[in-house]
Task: structure prediction
Amino acid sequence: MIKAEPRTILNFLHTYFDVVRDLFEFQSHDGLISKEAFDMIVKKHGQQNIVGKLKEYRIVRSIGSDFEMRDVYFKMMEFLLFEFKPLLPETIEKYKGAISELYMKIRLGENHDRDILMERIKNISHQIREFVDLVERNAFRLLSETRDLKSNIERVEYREKVHKASFWIEYYILPLNKILDVNHSESVTNKLMEVSEYANRKRLDFADETIRTEFEKLYMQLIQTNQDLLRQSKILTNELLPLLERIRTESLILTGFIEFLRHPYRTQTPPLLKGSRTMVYAKDMLFKVKEFFEQFETQEAVYYEETDMQFDKWIFDRELFLTQLNAELPVKDFFGWCSKMLLKDFSHIETEKFFAITGLLFDEALSVEFPKKDERTTIETLNARIDLPKIKIDNPVKI
Amino acid sequence: MVYPSHHKRIVEDLMGGKFILSNEDHYNSLKENDKFYQEFFKLSFDLDLILKPEFSYLLSKETQENFSRDVSIFVAILCYELDKDGQNFMEMLDYHEFNYEEIDRYFENSSFIDLIESNKALKDQDSRRTLINGMARRNIVHKSFEDRFLFTQAHRVFIEFAKELAMRKMAVSQPEENAGN
Result:
């Protein structure tokens, strides 16, 4: 029992709002306010004297040596600060059971006690209100969490983002979407549609006017509820789900790229074809062919100059010299003989002419004898001095 | 024998290591004659034809590893820097017209500067322009002006590469984490 006036409590909350908010935030985070945290918060605000009032106004209660903010205040703070904790869809789905059960009892008991029927209609209306409220708060909180994840103020790592986005999708968005999916026979929304149709009929044909009025109220509430749920469902499917999917995909890609950039030369990159053009001729074929033909295009003129210079037209007459040699046999010094023969016709010996005559030596008919001692003769030509052995040519041996 | 329309262009582009994009005339002919070209490239050159809804390209046993690595590093750093800059990098790769100045700014102020400076294809402005020209030759980017370009859908090869790498990495680390718990 609280002795204080409600206005006094509200004034207290107004005056010490910062303390209450810190207590709320601590409990939101940790689930309970430890004694140390409680003392620290009130001390921080210099308000140790309000501990008694907090308990008296039943804002907090003791749990052993620790504290807990009472549910009604906790919910009020949630609402005031718009800091709702997202509920697991399983928690929300419990309303389906409550609503279904009340609906069944209303249908079965519509011809029984009037008062209990009225109470049941009011109760189902209350359950529906709570359900819609929870869905709205959950959708709002999920949207807010998703936007935070997108802006990444807390500098969450990409891998953690992938994990968070997947977590929200798997455990919150998809199940919540299922609850709100009017086409799903098991969804709460589908059940509400059924209740709505029933209420619509009964608001027109129920015998008792008071009950008709209650059905009318329920029906009007359900029209608004269905509109609200449809809006929430649209937010989930059109905004929240694509946003989370994108966060997940983006973060996955960036995780991969960062992983790759850690060891860019040790990771196998996407295979790409080594570009090649298969040609039947070489790439520089054209230039080579051009070069080949160009050499014939410009032919240089070649000039031959006639000369009047006289030149020696001496031709070696082998037969003549051989006959003379044979006539003079035996010759003791063949090369000396060659020299003598040339000097008969010319004033000097030309090397070419000299070697031409020496060719007689290879005549098989001649009997050539090489000197036993080192006897040599020297022939002087126009441009050489030739040192040669003295070779003796004998008469041919007659067999 | 009658060859499909645009046959010469299809073969020339793919053999030149180019991506054929779905908005090009010869892509439709390639798609309509998918089976023929799969067989044609396999039997003639021992190459595999990859045909995706947005683009097509050839794969061989011998690949151009350096080019692929340079492009992968380029795209990876660009995506990272765009995200850091608060941009939606996936939308940017899909629709944004990049200019060289913008690219230089991202690369010169990147925290991956050591990697950038040690890579011949990324180390300075000229190198990056050469790489972008190489990407344009292969249809990975489309040059709208001398100093501007857009990514084509072919960039998704590198996005898919990153996704697969991340999933592989996460699949490996998941059991480790579970084992740790």
